[in-house]
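Kindly inspect the following:
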Amino acid sequence: MTPSEHPPTPLWTPDAHRRDRALITAFVQWLQRERSLHFDGYEALWQWSVQDTEGFWRAVLDFFALPFDPPPARMLEDAPMPGARWFPGARVNFVQQVLRHEGLQTPAIVYESEAGGTGEIGWVELRHQVGAVAATLRALGVQPGDRVAGYLPNIPQTVVAFLAAASLGAIWTLCAPDMGPVSVGDRFRQVAPKVLIAVDGYRFAGKPFDRRAPLDEILAGLPSVQAVLWVPHLGADAAPPPQVQARRWLPWADALATPSAVAPEPMAADHPLWILYSSGTTGLPKPIVHGHGGMLANGMVNMVLHNDLHPGDRVLWAVNTSWMVWNAHIMSLLGGATVVLYDGSVTGDGPEHDWGHLWKLAGRTRATFFGAGAAIHQACMKAGIVPRDIADLDALHTLGSTGSPLSPEACAWMYASIRPDLWLNVVSGGTDLAGGFLVGLPTLPVYLGEMQCRTLGARVEAWSDECRPVMDEVGELVCVNPLPSMPLFFWGDEDGSRYRESYFDTFQDAAGRPVWRHGDWLRLVPRPGAVGGVIYGRSDATINRQGVRMGTAEFYRVVEQLEEVADSLVVDLEYLGRPSWMALFVQLRPGIELDEPLRQRIRQALRTGLSARHVPDEIVPVALVPRTITGKKLELPVKKLLLGQPLDKVVKRDALAQPAAIDWFVAFAQDYLARSPS
């Protein structure tokens, strides 16, 4: 891969007002005043943050006056990864930081939903609703450590349910209702929730989607669920399905009916807060557990400090609740910002696709920060949308992008079609740490196609295959030091082997200590004041569709249930400057042809079992799926072939069970590259 050359002229440079009002400016001044620390620019601040772990993270806790009680005697013990233990001896509850903003006169939540209408919830009302639902959960027997699961879209009830569960020390986990019963079951069965909070359905692009039948199937496989909170989102009179009625259940309105003061219970800093799901290439989705203390501390750095969120800012992210960015969005509440929730199609509810819909929404809700997946921004660009001509964006001062690489063309389009004084905040991180590794900062210039800096506290480097840090070259994204938001563990991974294999089996530092390998191609770019970066896509075989990551094993479980399919291999290409493209290669049983009806059956199986976003762009018949001698499918080698790498660089033929099987993919890759946009 040859790095793209970008002109060094900034697309945007912050003015004096933006620099002066920035939280990072206040933090640097506080460090000078309270710690007698002086830094010549952001890069010097970053270097201190990764070298003085104790000093930096104690400064974060003190600057934001985070509610650790008692505070930790040390920031970190057992420093080597994995197994680093943060904030030992401290007690805290993530929800305490959210509810301390109840004196603000601005809304806590602004929402718009195709099924649920529009409205606002103030900070005092949010506290009341969280207290009532927490009391209901307690009455249902929920105790610290119990899992509470949501099958919910991006609506206020989801936020309230999460905060209520977390306030009790219960562990939250969430899937969007557009996910099929196979995907949801694979996730929830692993964590055995005690209570499920679920909607009857949702409305998308103007069409109702009744999800009671899939919910019934999900519950049939979850004997651990003792009670259900029923949220009639699609229809007020919708009767719960049989599996709901067979459990103890009550409507959401009843859960809110009894007022109760909320008193978040202080937990050990490493008490689990939530479980997110990320997937490798084999087995079930990985249930990733993050803790109260880690999410609070790192959330304040990632989501508040770097995003420069002030009380009263209105933050709109176009998200699906199965995507980690939903959690990141909700962390805006930590800084007193208003979260703007949208539940519906990104192109609106009309018969025609309106790629201006989200921009109009940002204008209607007076969003100051609007973020979306890079794919949405690029779709708007391709559709010829000029946001300034269709929406009142006077309140908007920050644009966010994440989920996949944002092309230089899309960066330039934003400044040309909106206005030149906006801060473009492009970030890259992952579900694994519920945060970013490369992020933005409002006091640094924005360069075409680049992220502005590395996150404070995160020693992010690009490494060659020889474990050598490289600069201005493409390498593997690694993090050399521990972070508070790294997973506590994977649920059910008793010996920690799956956790270690996921991140720590590839690279070691000079002292032989494991180093976090993230699975992204990264080029670090030195710029005046900071080292920025460009992400070139995934370096492994994980599927990433619109920000929702899924392992290939989940595809195979669905596709290979079809009797016509003997074997299959899926590859998702996500590479800077090219359209996202996912291909499913199917090896059919003898005598079967891949005609259009079979293609449609495969697509429908994936749409129903997984989700619409996981339907492949192309289904291709192959004579034989290539495997190693040990039986592993060659997903990553095939992906590398399709990205233009030569065969001898991606796989050794003598490691293959049937070496001739890879030859077809070599020819296919050459044809694909010849017909693909450069």
Notes: The radius of gyration is 24 Å. The chain is about 30% helix and 25% strand.
